[in-house]
Amino acid sequence: MQAFPSAEVLGIASFATILVSLRGAMEPIVEKICAMPEFTVVALAGGSYDLVCEVWCRDNRHLLETLDAVRSMGGVGLVQSNTYLDIIKEDYLIG
Q: pLDDT digit string (tens) for 21-79?
């Protein structure tokens, strides 16, 4: 049996999906984003955006700072965020 700490216990109150469109070389930007502790998922994607990411932040101010940090990276084009208002289900068990 595995235990997963709740977001509240970790001090997390703001969650979002961030979609990122890149210009130029992808690897340097992906490395910078992956190094940021707020990012819990970073996935390469097909379609309108190159990256689909999930972030966990302390609060909305922290989320805004995280978005600004991504927007200010050279090579980042469009950034779109979708804030989670409430998490209905979160399950990491497979099978």
A: 999 999 999 999 999 999 999 999 999 999 999 999 999 999 999 999 999 999 999 99
CA atoms within 13 A on the CB side of 82: 8
- Determine the Cα–Cα distance for residues 32 and 11; give it in Å rounded to an integer: 23
The model's pTM is 0.84
Q: Does residue 1 carry a pLDDT above 70?
A: no
Nearest to 48 by CA among 79, 16, 14: 79
Q: What is the CA radius of gyration of the chain?
A: 14
Tokens of 47: 């379609």
**What are the backbone angles phi and psi of residue 93, rounded to the nearest 5°?**
-85, 135
